[in-house]
Amino acid sequence: MTQKLEGPTYLLEAKSFLIDPGQDELITLTAKMPNARRTKYDNLNVTTRVDSRSAGSTFIVTDTPEDHRGHKTISREEYTRITSLQEDYIREQDMIVINGTIGNDAEFRVPARLIIEAANANVAGSQDLLYFHPGDLPEDTQPTVSVIYTPNLPLADYPNERCIAVDLENGVTRVLNSDYFGESKKGGLRMWNKIVYDRGGIPLHAGCKAVPSPRGEKTFLIIGLSGTGKTTTTFTRQNDSKPVQDDFIALMPGGKVYGTENGCFAKTYALSMEYEPTIYGAVTARGSYLENVSQKDDELDFFDESFTANGRAVFSMEKLGWFKDARDVGTVDYLLILNRNNNIIPAVARLKPEQAAGYFMLGETMGTSAGGKDEAGKALRVPGTNPFFPLPHGFQGNRFLELISGHPVEVYLMNTGWVGGGQDDVDSGRAKKVKIPISSAVVKAIAEGAISFTTDPDFGYEIATAVPGIDDIDFLQPRRLYDRQERLGEYEGHVSRLKSERASFLATFPKLGKQIIDAVT
Predict the structure, then answer these.
(1) What pTM value is reported for the model?
(2) How far, in Å, CA of 223 to CA of 200, rounded?
(3) What is the pLDDT of residue 275?
């Protein structure tokens, strides 16, 4: 005897469906998992088989792959085969169903659903924390987006026998053979990306914070690839600032901002009580879910990367003790594009609109363990630093320029890495690390309008001549470090290489406006 669950475009049968259990029950189910351990903080730490998102196993479902340039695709016929295999498997399983919404603004909230094997209750519990659960939706509300998730079903002939099949047309993502929570979280948000674009906005892989200043409260958006300092920059306090959103926001015409999640999915590697006390407190609070954090007995070690440097924690916004609801923030004032670089990018540079769209499209950074072992430590270019945008990436740059040109917003490039070389060069004095206090001083100075600028002769953006709280000019003008070390030839080589590489990279997006390409090349 099976139970049935109906969605807008699917009808599932399973041994049982546990629908919308509370957190107490989800924690109890998670505690029974053989790979879950309780910590000294009375929360649960789950060790998973898969420790990062599976980009190489992710496919858009379409019979017109040319409409999704830059993405791997599968045909609808193949998707039908995968659907049949997954639904046959589900008939023999106990499943958990979590309903909620992406976003909490009545003008733009998207009903969402996760359906997952009960054997992986930690994923259900984590997703339950991130969804909003508005009480005013009709009981018969159907999800606009659904993630159907079978972590223990391998799929032959796919990379690592794993598949994430994204059916944008019907708002369904099917995940097979990954037990990493990020596939649930990103599964819903990836489909939400298209909804935002279709409504005239742009989805940004960005944090959001509200920073008080003598000139009034300022709304910041912080764009960055996972692991490059997005969460840290969002949660570091300047002038009693408050975080609004950790990971994805919608930027709409007129500078309107919509949030997505009621919690955070934060990296824990190198998490420090000294530098990140707010995140540390939330991660170690009872009721937060940990994933792949190094643990001995009941003690956690946030600096041990022997298994993975992509340890994670999911916690609700209320665990922070202080935050601001996205419905209460003003239109965006400042947008920061994070670039985790290890040579000549300054700690901060101010961009003109066309330059901003260009650097947004370049999405330059250094890969981290969030993208898997193949990306960690490598120089990457990810348009918009958003690997979850499911449409042709050229659409991102054009829409971004349109939105920031139609609403006054200042855009800055921020290096969260090093100047002069990588971490191996720091001890020798060849390089310097852009540490959290330096980035925090930059954010505070931007909010207060306290930075003086001059034009950089090589790239045309504006670089700082002075930032309150930063005494070392090398962070603001890396050319000086190279000059003092008699490395100007190396510096000029980086300039030439970057200009050439950027031109080649942007030329791969035929729909991208020429003025955007010209602004950074």
Answers:
(1) 0.93
(2) 19
(3) 85
